[in-house]
């Protein structure tokens, strides 16, 4: 136990040290300067980035969550393998290829980026919704039914609360992935902080590169943190940590 | 009251899970559905609250044909306990117990009062458990909560599907005793599924022994042990069924019918046994040679006489073999 703790602490310490070292290095070389000298551009790019992530994630939740619920109803259960197959197939296409494909259909711009990311976020949310509901002890549902609960009551009072952990983990995965992948939106003219990252790569300019990449990373870390906090609020106390995915 | 009238359940392909079953669970009685796995006992139980459909025949619950009721309403009037207790981990103990009252729209005050009285009934401290969650409780406690939940809206009829099957033997016996104690107070009409012969003998007013979806015998435990109707029944209860039947009789009954022997005050090595103890435990005690003499005492500790293996044997002969028509529970 103690060696484990020791290793844990030292690894954490090393990571913190590296991060601090990186920031000192970046600040000393004035690599963050663009954020301040071109702050209006930065804010526009940041807003675009957040919009792409937010809109695509919200649409994905709005589609994948009801789809996951629907497919676990007895009437549609038989179709589960088929829908899962399609969704899995969507995920197996590389994200850049999805963007490229969408560009050839929808043209360039914000909408295309949102749509591509939406396609890409469906799987983690859908899969975790289905897994969360499937992992519920069938005896529990049987007891609920036997006591006279209606199907809608079983869904909202038993199934969803007990699947909440798994579903939120899916949303978290999707959002964090999205924040990173949204940097590729630049490629199809969707804007976002990818503009600076790719400019930095093309011009070999560390300033642009870091001014774009660090905020994206921070956003991902922040989103992960906030969604974990949300878990503590939404997931009922008794069913916490009962479903690990 | 639950009345089964020519009840049949068949699946596609003509396989009968339950074949032409007829029997009645009288008001306030416990009837145990007993049989090997796959005999259709659980299916039969689940047909009562229509978790399984009925192919043919009718089931009357409290004088009303179950098919004429809305299935949701029907289920709210029937207490339901299952083996793996089926408590909802996302709800507190209070919310779990009060589910059916909640579905029935009871007020907050009514629910709170009912919760306290139920917890008193099952012998758990309401304040200690109210805000806790099922995963913080032991298996035995969870099963007690499961029973309380089934009793919550005071349904006249209860279905129990191997409710104590997942508990270890010591806890199981304790909860069985507790439950029988509760039943003496609440007098529910209970259909109880079990695969445990001892449990069935202990809990049942009457046993339904099933095989392959058919009733082999429907009788009181003592009658079934003394007079098995066919080879299957006698095989199912085993060669030691005479010994098993002893658990239905108490020392008191033996004393009333054939009397005890005088105890010998010169013998030092003695043990005492309560007069309300069942004869099966008494016999085990005698055969274990724990003492040279076993003295029977009443609840006040008064010594009534001594008991011997000979006496038990005589009683067995008299009670079980001698009176074929008498079927009563001890």
TrEMBL record, chain A:
Tell me yes or no: is Manganese among this UniProt entry's keywords: no
Which InterPro entries does the record match to this protein?
ABC_transp_perm/SBD, MetI-like, MetI-like_sf
UniProt entry tagged with the keyword Nucleus = no
Provide the ABC transmembrane type-1 domain boundaries: 46-227
The UniProt entry's GO CC annotations, sorted and at most eight, read:
plasma membrane
Q: What is the topology of this protein in the membrane according to its UniProt annotation?
A: Multi-pass membrane protein
Transmembrane intervals: 7-28, 48-69, 81-102, 108-126, 175-201, 207-227
Localization annotation = Cell membrane
Identify the domain of life.
Answer: Bacteria
Which keywords, in A-to-Z order, does the entry hold?
Answer: Amino-acid transport, Membrane, Transmembrane, Transmembrane helix, Transport
Chief subcellular location equals: membrane
Q: Per the UniProt entry, what are the Gene Ontology biological process annotations, in alphabetical order?
A: amino acid transport; glycine betaine transport; transmembrane transport
Tell me the protein family, please: Belongs to the binding-protein-dependent transport system permease family. CysTW subfamily.
Q: Indicate what this protein is called per its UniProt record.
A: ABC transporter permease
Automatic annotation (TrEMBL), chain B:
Q: Which Gene3D superfamilies match?
A: P-loop containing nucleotide triphosphate hydrolases
Cellular component per GO? plasma membrane
> Which transformation does this protein catalyse, written as a reaction?
a quaternary ammonium(out) + ATP + H2O = a quaternary ammonium(in) + ADP + phosphate + H(+)
A GO biological process of this protein is:
glycine betaine transport
Supply the PROSITE patterns for this chain.
ABC_TRANSPORTER_1, ABC_TRANSPORTER_2
Q: Where is it localised?
A: Cell inner membrane
Q: Tell me, what is one Gene Ontology molecular-function annotation carried by this entry?
A: ATP binding
Tell me if Cell membrane is a UniProt keyword of this record: yes
Occurrences of domain ABC transporter (ranges): 2-237
Question: What is the membrane topology here?
Answer: Peripheral membrane protein
Q: Which UniProt keywords apply?
A: ATP-binding, CBS domain, Cell inner membrane, Cell membrane, Membrane, Nucleotide-binding, Repeat, Transport
- What EC number(s) would the UniProt record show? 7.6.2.9
Q: What superkingdom heads the lineage?
A: Bacteria
Is this entry keyworded ATP-binding? Answer: yes
Family label: Belongs to the ABC transporter superfamily.
Q: How does it assemble?
A: The complex is composed of two ATP-binding proteins (OpuCA), two transmembrane proteins (OpuCB and OpuCD) and a solute-binding protein (OpuCC). The complex is probably composed of two ATP-binding proteins, two transmembrane proteins and a solute-binding protein.
Instruction: Write down what this protein is called.
Output: Quaternary amine transport ATP-binding protein
